[in-house]
Design goal:
This protein is an all-alpha fold. Helices cover 67% and strands 3% of the residues. The chain is built from 13 helices and two strands.
Length: 298
């Protein structure tokens, strides 16, 4: 597998602090380490974008399906790079939380799409966004009919919607008939996450997105005894933000490779990805040791 071996030579190195260094880590050090992990896994995602569909190491996949899967992987890497830019300023906890929601959902969808070779699954993914496009198209056409003529912005929007539908290969009449995507909770369960993961990723992650009271208390309001006051400072990222996203993306990369590569070429790649995962979990367990120790109420 010369192509696979070549790719293995290009994979980014693992973060390798010594055990002595890890033993002395404080909170800021952990943020720095998982920042490096986020960068490393983002670069790993980029590496697999260079797998070309015609490679003999890959199984036969339609051009449309392959471009969609690699586009999801590209989106993942871009969101991770955005997180790094935000985290590099040692603030923007809230913004990173919001980006994380998109990042997590994209990683879960990629994992779910790569879970099965059934083309029905891919059609459901395509039609999910197209349904909204069709609804918007109907509103535009209704406004045109009421007005009696079409304006320039409507022409552009209708052309954009028609392009989305045309490139999907699905007829407009067929889109409403296609089975809807499962909920994100169901997707996560199907790709191997426990129910708690959905609560953490989706429900708790919603606080930052929707500006809930819990979200404000976590980022914008200080509580001192019974007094509430606005927080003047920005919030540093939490190590868990950078760690958990890295872990989810590693799972998505593994699912992608498992789906696109021929059976005889998967072993080395899967072993390499598992090295990243094992080391990442090892570092996380060291960071979380204090949090996982017994706690007794006062």
């Amino acid at each position: 597998m010369s192509e696979g071996l070549d790719l293995l030579q290009e994979l980014p190195p693992l973060p390798t602090p010594t055990e002595g260094e890890l033993a002395k880590y404080d909170y800021k050090d952990w943020i720095g380490l998982f920042f490096e992990w986020h960068r490393t896994v983002g670069l790993l995602a980029i590496c697999f974008l260079f797998l070309i569909r015609e490679s003999p190491a890959l199984r036969k996949i339609s051009k449309l399906r392959y471009i969609a899967l690699t586009a999801l992987l590209s989106r993942i890497s871009r969101l991770m790079m955005a997180n790094l830019r935000l985290a590099s300023e040692d603030r923007h906890f809230e913004a990173i939380s919001i980006v994380d929601r998109s990042l997590h959902e994209t990683a879960i969808k990629l994992s779910w799409l790569c879970r099965s070779k059934d083309p029905d699954r891919f059609e459901r993914y395509l039609s999910d966004g197209l349904r909204n496009d069709l609804e918007f198209r109907n509103h535009i056409l209704a406004n045109v009919e009421t007005r009696g003529h079409q304006i320039a912005i409507e022409t552009r929007m209708l052309e954009s919607i028609d392009r989305s539908i045309r490139t999907s290969g699905i007829a407009k009449e067929e889109i409403p008939k296609i089975k809807k995507l499962p909920s994100l909770e169901t997707m996560m369960r199907e790709v191997g996450f426990r129910d708690l993961a959905y609560v953490v990723v989706q429900r708790m992650g919603s606080h930052a997105v929707h500006g809930t009271w819990t979200g404000l208390l976590a980022s914008t309001i200080d509580v001192e005894k019974s007094t509430l006051s606005l927080r003047s400072e920005f919030n540093s990222p939490h190590p868990n933000q950078l760690m958990f996203s890295s872990l989810m993306v590693l799972r998505a990369i593994s699912a992608f490779c498992n789906f696109v590569m021929r059976k005889e070429h998967k072993i080395e790649i899967e072993a390499a990805i598992e090295q990243y995962r094992t080391k990442l979990l090892r570092h996380n367990s060291l960071m979380a040791a204090v949090d996982l120790s017994p706690s007794f109420p006062p």
